[in-house]
Amino acid sequence: MLELRSVSYRYAGYRRLALDRVDLTVADGEIVGLVGPNEGGKSTLCLVAAGLAPGSIGGVLTGAVLLDGESLAGRPTHELAGQVGIVFADPASQRSGIAGTVFEEVAIGPINLGLPVDDTVARVRGALAALGIEDLALCAPDRLSGGQSQLVALASILAMRPRHLVLDEPTAELDPEGRRLVEDALASLARTGTALLIAEHDRQLLASLGARLVAIDGGRIVPAEGAAA
Ligand SMILES: Nc1ncnc2c1ncn2[C@@H]1O[C@H](COP(=O)(O)OP(=O)(O)OP(=O)(O)O)[C@@H](O)[C@H]1O
Ligand SMILES: [Mg+2]
């Protein structure tokens, strides 16, 4: 379970609150769709929920972000990675740049966890299979289409087997075929008990996933009715 309790956040060097007393709970196996206007605070909430803000990018946070009841505050990024994964809209920004093949790219996370080779291979195969991209295993990561790249980024996160997944417009760069693959993968992930928070302009995707909609505007949670798909 992912919980934000009265979370306020400001970016480093800014006075204005980007998040203002946000309360949000994503239960195990639940899909929450985060909607709202541009600059509303969706991406900021994603960064905060994944512990990157303030953990990696700084800024000031008050309130509490809890994973299964435990605060994220002060926990190192490598420790968080096995518990909460984040996927962004731009696949290129998520590539390591050091892997020669998709298989190696997806293996980087598990290798960094110090897992035995057998476990690493099983995780990579499982992540590729979950997204239907086993046939990309030997491709060069920088030679894929945008949609394929995004699936590889998602596979890299799935290989860490996080129980919470935060996705910031994960289908923005995908064609309809890629979007379907991601949608299926997200639905089956939710069935395994993973908590999913998805910021997304594409209401169709959220509707077909059966997501509970939460709207954010001006950094505050607002009623979702008007914003409902
Ligand atoms: N790195 C940053 N530094 C300072 N302010 C930022 C930063 N990123 C976002 N903001 C500000 O925080 C507020 C919320 O922006 P955010 O990107 O979270 O909105 P969003 O809902 O994701 O918008 P979009 O739909 O355009 O992706 C905006 O006022 C924005 O200008
Ligand atoms: Mg955004």
Q: What does this protein structure show overall?
A:
This protein has 229 residues and is an alpha/beta fold. It has a single domain, classed as 3-Layer(aba) Sandwich (Rossmann fold). It is 32% helix and 24% strand. The chain has helices at 42-49, 77-80, 102-112, 117-130, 146-158, 176-191, 203-209; strands at 2-10, 19-26, 31-35, 60-67, 70-71, 84-87, 164-168, 195-199, 212-217, 220-222. It has a six-stranded mixed β-sheet with strand order 6-7-8-3-9-10, sandwiched between helices. It has a four-stranded antiparallel β-sheet with strand order 2-1-4-5. The chain binds adenosine-5'-triphosphate and magnesium ion. Magnesium ion (MG) binds at residues 42-43, 168.
Shape: globular
The CATH level-2 architecture is identified as 3-Layer(aba) Sandwich
Main sheet characteristics: 6 strands, mixed
Compute the CA-based radius of gyration. 17 Å
Bound molecules: adenosine-5'-triphosphate, magnesium ion
Number of helices: 7
Low-confidence stretches: none
Tell me the CATH superfamily.
P-loop containing nucleotide triphosphate hydrolases
Summarize the structure.
This protein is 32% helix and 24% strand. The chain has helices spanning 42-49, 77-80, 102-112, 117-130, 146-158, 176-191, 203-209, and strands at residues 2-10, 19-26, 31-35, 60-67, 70-71, 84-87, 164-168, 195-199, 212-217, 220-222.
